[in-house]
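User: For my dataset I need records formatted as: sequence, then structure tokens, nothing else. Please produce one.
Assistant:
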Amino acid sequence: MKKTKCGIIGCGMISDTYFKAAKRFRNIEIVACSDIIPSRSAAKEELYGAKAMTNEELLAMPEIEIVFNLTPPLVHSKIDIDVLNAGKHVYSEKPFGVDADDARKVIELAKSKGLWVGCAPDTFLGGGLQTARKMIDDNWIGKPLSGTAIVQGRGPEKWGQAPFFYTYGAGPMLDLGPYYVTALVNLLGPAKSVTAVTGKGYESRTFGAEVAEQYQDQYKPYDSYPVTVSTHLAGVIEFECGAIITVIASFDVWKHSHTPIEIYGTEGTLQVPDPNTFGGPVRLFKPGYEDWQDVPLAYGYTDNSRSIGVADMAKALENGRKHRANGELANHVLEIMLAFDKSSKAGAKVDIVSRCERPAPLPLGLEDGEIDD
């Protein structure tokens, strides 16, 4: 089996998850890493054996075909463009970007160079969401009519890096929305419009006992910091298939009891697991049932399998098919998410201009570490 050599740019907290999960897949190998703070990449070299170097050195390595872009969201588009200009395929952490025009430039540049773009989340390739997809495809709930996608809480307001999550480029929609909206597109296909109202419940939040190093010149433990983005977004996504999904993403909620995603069809209801995870549960209700029935998961990859999107991308490059966590999907998801604030400001429905193909489901019966039969 061919091993596609990969590099990682950005060795922050999320990179450990990728380094570890990538070892699971037999067709990819991370051979180099870089970070704006050299001590971070040096630490990853010691832990995982990927040689630490500068971005420029990594992008100059001819053997590297795919680069994981694990940098902060504000520079996702810039780093994607740097990677593409170096002649390499790129797979970005979520979200695909924070600005629609910048994200579009990435797509256009990749097409002009004959290169591929991928983007997290790849959780929709996990056993839970793939099983839910199969239930819909196999007509267990009939035609999907409506549904809910709800992610609520206080957000990471006490974290050492908390201000990042409450300013431009984050908030609950760009931070957690990619999981939910990507899952919906995987289940239902592309969207056609968004109608929404957004706001924020608090002008400031308060640190906990820890303040991350990058904020220590501004803040002390338990200081307040400003909230500059919408922290409660509520709206409706209308899908081309006809389904109307009510979506709430909030950092303004102390406690709730909603399930993450439910899809209501003509013949039943499907409970879909948390799309920020890879496993279940998947539950089904149909007329005649006394209560919800647990659905056995039909697919593997039910634990943390981040990197499966890159493994799939590498296999697709080898086989000449379309990869599943692709740039068109990610760009469509980004446009949907940005449309919530856009609709709220306009006081009107916003049409979604971009389109993407519904990603192909994974084959049944895969062995662990494999993507295709």
